[in-house]
Amino acid sequence: MNVKKHIQLKVNGQNFEVDVEPTARLLDVLRDLGFVGVKEGCGTGECGACTVLLNGKSVLSCLLFAVQADGKEITTIEGLASGNKLHPVQEAFIEHGAVQCGYCTPGFIMSSVYLLNNNPKPTREEIREELSGNLCRCTGYVKIIDAVEAAAKKLEVKQ
Fold this sequence. Notes:
By secondary structure, the protein is an alpha+beta fold. It has five helices and five strands.
């Protein structure tokens, strides 16, 4: 018999209190809360579609139990925009045609935001390395890398 656990999450600045099964994945809890930009691709941590920021760190939400996020801050793709203004990484992905079908895009964007938060001027090789855990079946990755480079420049101008 599983006894539900009461947890508190702060998702995109909004507080939530939920009762979850001890084995509930963070991915499923986020989606149940309405954050459907978090995608399940593989469910085994291989594709990166479920990437979110947990206390500022890039994590795969399909590999975390929701109870592991208790009391922590989570940022999903829905939390990047400010009102009607997209985050510079989101803008760059659109401008460079790096979205294709869009299924993997939230994970790529979240990984890119993490990279640029920690390395504001990455080389193309550093971008490739950081995004190596994200898979896309539609692109050759060139437009994605171009978009991250452009986003770095946009962010540099803002500072």
